[in-house]
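so my prof wants the structure for this chain in the tokens format not the other one, which i didnt know existed until like an hour ago. anyway here's the sequence
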Amino acid sequence: MKCKVTKKWLCLAALFCGVSAAQPAETHEQRGKRVVYEALNALGGQAFLQMQDRTETGRAYSFYNQQITGLSVATIYTRYLAPVPGKVEQRERQAFGKDKSSSTLFTENGAWEITFRGARPIEDRQYEQYLDSTLHNIFYILRQRLHEPGMQFYSQGSDIYENQPVEIVDITDADGRTVTVYFNQDTKLPVKQTFKRRNETYHDFDQETTIFAKYRDSGGVKWPWNIHRERNGEKIYEMYSESVEMNKDLRDDLFSLPVNAKLLPKAK
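here's what i got, hopefully its the right format
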């Protein structure tokens, strides 16, 4: 009887192993897509996808050669538009100073620096960099671009970043833009992203890196309150938010040129 029981369990074990072996392992593409969708859920899922506008207020620092070149109280207003594949469909106004007397307005059709003197179009190169950065931004991808035709997700596996276990995923769109994103394995949230941008002056590539930290909940959406940007390993920008608000039904005039603003020529 003992031998029959042993034989029975051996058969069951063999059957279990056979079933397990028959199940295909997760591919790099499947794993990458899973990690990205887990991040979307961690950020708020439907609440994140239904975010219409956002207001971030805090301290902003700019750097050159690792030295502070600018410090200001900053308020960043963002409004999402209907998605269009491969295009930036959002409007953003960056207001500076306690009185918000100067600002930069970015739209899907152009961008302007606005002061008491009037509105001056920003340099083409600066606007192109804004568009390129936005199209590579993980939060813009999750909110606006996730279902674009040709969007691909490829897992690079797991690693340790800043003493935290991470999943690393390459996200590539139909035009070949690729951003590599590091997701915390425990929280599922993005902690770092990096991509390369061609440097037209030196005919090589700059590596653009953004680090996200201090996530907090606002209206069911998690958002990083600390954002740190680097170019080729040197910090160029930091934002420390003191408040982040979602879906405040922001006024239309925040995302358009002032009616009476004098239109200035583009700087030479």
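also thought this was worth mentioning. Residues 103 and 198 are 27 Å apart (CA to CA).
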